[in-house]
Amino acid sequence: MMTLLEAIDARHSVRRYISRPLEREAVDCLRAKIDECNSKGNLHIQLVLNERKGFSGMLAYGSFSGVENYIVMAGRRADDLDERVGYYGEQIVLLAQQLGLGTCWAGLSYRKVKGAYALDSEEKVACMISLGYPDDAGRKHKCKSVEDVSNAGVSTPGWFEKGVRAALKAPTAVNQQKFYIEYAGVKDGRHSVRARRLFSMVGYTSMDLGIVKLHFEIGAGKDNFEWV
């Protein structure tokens, strides 16, 4: 299985899928990861299999095709829900990549299908992630520079720039990359890093920030620093 850094490099958004059931081993791995993310992230993520209505119709037309499986990213309403959805959802996305599956974050291009999943009255769907075997070669998007999104330089540790480079490969809504990562020095003997979202007319910056922070941790090494 590829490493997480290799999965970050290989991942791209997939909108077209082959009609093929997911292999049992892949489903078991995804469900185990979803259970872990639900527990650690206080979320209600659900895997929906063999369901063709969620990404069909006017909203999905011309964008998605062949989607028969998807992940419902949901949880109780809270100010930090979107960031948690991004952080833990991207863990599932990278695992899917390691399993040879394609994915795509979808903020709008889906519809809620009655009976496909269950939520209580205090929960909401933040977004969905399409899932399956790719029928889409994908393409690399233009991204900002390390200098555009961070204060990395000669005075910052080498691992910090590695983290920023991994963060630049994170999927963000319409590839907006509205984030900034700052090396904040040493506090109580620990390196400190601060990440913040920037203003966007598109929105989804909190969710994007969760995804970006996960990528940074993978690239930088989570044990090298603490978030402030």
TrEMBL record:
The keyword Oxidoreductase applies. SUPFAM superfamilies: FMN-dependent nitroreductase-like. One of its GO terms (molecular function) is oxidoreductase activity. Pfam families: TM1586_NiRdase. Keywords: Oxidoreductase. InterPro entries: Nitroreductase-like, TM1586_NiRdase. Residues 4-220 form the Putative nitroreductase TM1586 domain. Belongs to the nitroreductase family. This is Nitroreductase family protein. It comes from Leyella lascolaii.
